[in-house]
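Weekly puzzle thread! Below is a chain. First person to post its structure in token form gets bragging rights.
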Amino acid sequence: MTDLVDRYLDSKGLSNPSIRKRAARKVLGYMDSTGAFLSGSQLALPSDKRIVASAYERHKGSPLNGAEKSAINHIYDLAGSSIGKSTPRPDVTPKATKTVAVAPKAVKGLAAAEKNLLQGDFISVGALSGDMVPDVPGLYCIKLRKEVRLPAKYGKVREDGVIYIGKADNLRERLWEEELSHKRPATFFRGIGAILDYLPPKGSLIGYANQKNYKFSPEDTNAIIKWMKLSLVVNWIQLTPSLILDTEKELIVKYAPMMNTTHNPHKNKELAAARKRCREYAKSE
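Winning reply:
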């Protein structure tokens, strides 16, 4: 893509194309280093350019300049995102990702929930931020990227990559703050940390009433978060609170995601053992 951008800018007859070339390299470098807006080695751009601009701005830590805004426009022009365009450009095979809505319309019915959640558009964890996840009740689904592999002892991951389905009274608090950022104890985060062979600090649960909610050290927590940004994609739907429990149960029973324990007809014994090892270590002196 870098070469494509260079050739594109050279063809426009700009007096100083190097400024935009450098900006494009920075944006593409951000995508490459974080895995944001990528599916394997290919671009997976959302339909709304503002999502990319906002994500890169947060990564950069300062407002975008004109060259960076233009670079994002050029990348879209060359990628030929499959949303709203009939023919992809040569050398790039883009895949549409989730167009994020702050306040999505509530889904009604099990069939609609399944279609919108499991078969809907997913977004890279590396491109996600808290303000992109709505503070409404609903369900969320976490998938493994196609090129990512978990340790073989945990068994084969579903072909669609689904590894976890969860419920939330507030999606922003549960999915973003707990499961993906670990600001508070979270089932999925504890499980993925155990699968990746991290252990909580020894004795860290001693004296606590809840002997299950182990946490990892700050250093290990950051390492797990970094892995998730590079390895996972997520999707969510808003759902009427009265339907959440039953819908979650039905979907877990049907899909049996490897990291779900409750309601799962095919519970992963290796995952259970890894989580137990973490609990016991956190309770040991």
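Puzzle host: Confirmed. Bonus trivia for everyone else. The two ends are 54 Å apart (CA to CA).
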